[in-house]
Amino acid sequence: xxxxxxxxxxxxxxxxxxxGMPVFPGSDQIALESIANSSSDGYNELKLExxxxxxxxxxxxxxxxxxxxxxxSASPAQFTGAGIVIDCRDCARIITRRVIQSYxxxxxxxxxxxxxxxxxxxxxxxxxxxxxxxxxxxAADFLTGFKLKGIGVDAPSFDPVHSSxxxxxHHILSKGILLIENLTGMDKIAxxxxxxxCFPLKIHKGDGSPVRAVAIQ
Length: 217
Hints:
Radius of gyration: 18 Å
C-alpha cells in the first residue's frame, strides 16, 4: 500500500496541439473542430485531423522501413524507461560524438537519451525550422551501440530540414530505437534522475504518433 501513497513529480515535455500550431515544412496543418457542444448537444466533442508526425511525436521503424516495427506491434514497454538529459546547448548546428561520449557512463545505465538543445524556445517562430541542431552521423552510430529504447530531441528533426536521404533516421531506426522529436521543457529535468514515457496511440500500422511525453521523478 505504501507504493500507492508515494507522490511522484510528473514533468510535461510536450507541446500543445492546437489550430495554427507549427508543422514541419510541407506537412498538412492540423484541423481541430468542435462537432458537439454541451449547450446544444448535451456534451462536448472535438474532431481532430492530424498527421502522425506533428507536434511532440515519435517515429517508429516503419517510418523508414516497410518491415519495421509500428505503434501497434511494439510492446508498450518500448515507450517507457529510465532516461537522462544530455546538455547540447553549446553544439550550435551539430550535436557531436564528443559531447555524447562525455556522458558514456550514464548512457549505459538508461534506456532513453534526451538531447537538450534549447531549440524549443523558438517554437512558434519561423526560425524553429531553420538551421536547428542535428545529430552528427558519428554520434548517432555511437548511440546505437548502447541498449537504448529511444532518443529524443527538443528540435524538429534529427536530420536537416531539407535532407532527403535522412541518414540519422535510417541508422537509428534500423536498430529498433525510437526517435522522439519536438520535445520541450528539458530545462526542468536537466540534472535529474527520471523515468521517461512517450506512449503513442495504438494506430494500426502506425509509423509514428503524437505523444504526451513526460518525465516521472
